[in-house]
């Protein structure tokens, strides 16, 4: 099966007042039809930038994007704005992080959704409106016939995010890029929105790239995971591989930060000490080494890639050392 | 399941441009470096310095010419190309009535830009006028900033009824169109000498336009300053200083005022530009600088009757205003950008 | 909604009261001078001054004087000029309105269209030579005094190039009422319109560009781009539409101020007999009653216009409307 989206050796560099800053270093990943790929990492790890630069949604005048990417086998990097426009919204749709700012404040939400449909398909105003109402019903917005004429500020955050999802799904895209779709929402609403996203993406046959910092969401939604740190994918594999046998100490930290499902809640969730390196870092070694509890002198050299099937990690640790350093978590 | 929220992993967001007591020289040095790298700002600064230097040379120039640019010279003559010509040439067209002042000689030795309708040297008057325009603009700017900072500090820091009263007064001044306020003040003050205690200000004094221009722009500056003082009043370092029982005067001087400085600095070029334009407009309406004194605005007014015969009388001061105000505006943009904590290109 | 309107009207009334008190204090209570003599103008006889002192109640307490002033301005409207003997002031002010409205209205059309073009072009071509050129031109437009620009325009169109095809159509200075001749009205005003509009095209173009660039950093513009919309549509329907709100507020304020007499410099340069020129002549003759009337009427007009803009704003912006 050929991948839907295949990104190889992606490198993204921003030009700033203080010189060029590389936000994404040599990142490769693929999205298969029908799968949900989670891209996990702290803020600033380059997870959003990787996806947005593939879609040409970064500021072109200040960004250099290098590498290769194909969508349905056709190259997508370096396409003209005009050619990209036909793909955006129709084949690849984006769900933004913050529903409060993702919709244009001065237009009714129905008009904003219908606008996207009519940008890609020759349908009448009336038909587009009917489809919009149906979409709003699908995302469980109450009274969709009335909601189409509401302005964004008249809806709650959860309702707005539903509208954004409805908009993303409006042209049955092959790929949905969901950039932290629930981060800005209340905890109670998060689960509902995630459920709905999973159900509808399956229904529309869309693959999903889910950008998140939340391993809980990953466990819930994803089939495969790519863990990003300081602009690199440090570990990738299926959800089972990563959760049962994480290789990279950074992934350990991420997993330890999930609150246990049962038993007494710890007073304080463990967290990773220290801060991510500044974006302009140039040292060749493992970027995580300064915070790594298993760091060794050799970590000052570029870390080797370990591979076992689809499971890959950028870390020098071998299996016995890992086992010694991190006793497997006892399943509760 | 429960979903952990971001802070578990991410370090607490560090607001890069958080207000902090302006102790270190860091932000200022950064701003200065940014400003120095801005080529158009440096060109503007050079233009402004050149204009200021030229106007300072006004008395020297007049002395060198050996003339008094404030006395009319209707019967005088001038030598051009070895020929003696009257400064006020009898008209050769129409009915032969009236006189036309001598045109530009383009010779710095005298009547470089020609004469005005009283036979006075326009180039020398342009320098003197520029000196007045700049002195008025500079003094009005200083006056306005002092008044506005005082009002903003008192209203923002004291709060309560003082703030309410001052803010309402600012609201009224704000809503009162600037030129109408200026006209009202000017006309009343010009019709009679004006006495405050022992000081009597006569109608011809430069203090009048300075005072008027300095006052009318106070609300534009005081409102943002008040708003900033309000936020500073709630900031942790001011609350801490209050908690320590430090005297108010010390808190205002050490903690509040230094943080207002960037705002005040940003206003300097903007106010200077506004003041030069306003002064020229008032003088053009004959309610600014009073004859025989000159400013760029009064020279433009002098030139209006000569516009079609001797256009340079009006063109030259206008060009001087455009160059000066343009330089101030460019510099103002650059200063604002340089002090802008948000920075560029993340 | 209704509460907003009422609150705004109360505020408007307060500001009007404040301005009238301020004007009263400036005109009648400046220390060290006799308001009656000032109103009488130059070379007035002692009898006239005495008459004025009585008519305006200057021999009575200040609050009474204030009430007398407001009554003569708004109720009896019998304020007379002493320089132009007995000329009633208020009708004179009202007669001047059409000329001012013609000047400001036409200029407003030009400056709105001009600044939209400048702002949108500069923002769309951000950081290119076109953007930089437009911004420098705008700054020059802002920096040139309007009365001087008017003189330059007159010099070119009335004198130096009047005999060429370019400006031979330009009539002599002055206002032609619309009722007299439509084409005459238009020809007489074209150059004043352009002159007055230059400053505002500069200001508005720069503000619009800044607002658009700010809008372009917003999430909803990324959403619009991610939807696959055309750049034109994103600019006009998403960025421009949201940037227009502050633009409209500014427009209301400036239009109000100009109709209220801020166009006086333009009127003077081009000899248009509007409110501004009336004020100008009163200034030349030190005719205080006329200035008093124009100042009060114009500032009330401006304050009312501002209140109207705020209410309109609430109607236009769905976020405020709720």
Question: How would you describe what is shown here?
Answer:
- The complex is a heterotrimer of chains A (332), B (346) and C (322).
- By secondary structure, chain A is an alpha/beta fold.
- In chain A, 32% of the residues lie in helices and 23% in strands.
- Chain A has a domain of 104 residues.
- The longest helix of chain A has 17 residues.
- Chain A is globular.
- Helix content of chain B is 61%, strand content 6%.
- In chain B, the strands form 3 sheets. Chain B has a two-stranded antiparallel ribbon with strand order 1-2. A two-stranded antiparallel sheet of chain B has the order 3-4. In chain B, strands 5-6 form a two-stranded antiparallel ribbon.
- The longest helix of chain B has 37 residues.
- Chain C has 2 domains: 75 residues, no CATH class; 177 residues, MetI-like (MetI-like fold).
- In chain C, helix 7 crosses helix 9.
- The interface between A and B is medium-sized, with 29 and 14 residues.
Chart the SSEs and their pairings.
The complex is a heterotrimer of chains A (332), B (346) and C (322).
Chain A: E1 5-16, E2 19-31, E3 36-40, H1 47-54, E4 63-71, E5 74-75, H2 81-87, E6 92-95, H3 99-102, H4 109-120, H5 125-138, H6 144-147, H7 157-169, E7 175-179, H8 187-203, E8 207-212, H9 215-221, E9 224-229, E10 232-238, H10 239-244, H11 249-256, E11 305-308, E12 311-314, H12 319-325
Parallel strand pairs in A: 3-8, 3-9, 6-7, 7-8
Antiparallel strand pairs in A: 1-2, 1-4, 4-5, 9-10, 10-12, 11-12
Helix pairs in contact in A: 4-5, 4-7, 5-7, 7-8
Chain B: H1 26-37, H2 39-56, H3 58-65, E1 77-80, E2 83-86, E3 88-90, E4 99-101, H4 122-158, H5 160-175, H6 178-190, E5 194-196, E6 199-201, H7 207-216, H8 218-233, H9 236-243, H10 248-284, H11 296-304, H12 312-339
Antiparallel strand pairs in B: 1-2, 3-4, 5-6
Helix pairs in contact in B: 1-12, 2-4, 2-12, 3-4, 4-5, 4-7, 4-8, 4-10, 4-11, 5-8, 6-7, 8-10, 9-10, 10-11, 10-12, 11-12
Chain C: H1 2-28, H2 35-40, H3 46-55, H4 62-75, H5 89-95, H6 97-124, H7 129-143, H8 146-160, H9 182-216, H10 219-226, H11 231-262, H12 264-270, H13 275-285, H14 288-316, H15 318-321
Transmembrane segments (chain B): 42-64, 134-157, 169-190, 196-218, 256-276, 312-332
Membrane topology (chain B): Multi-pass membrane protein
Protein name (chain B): Dipeptide transport system permease protein DppC
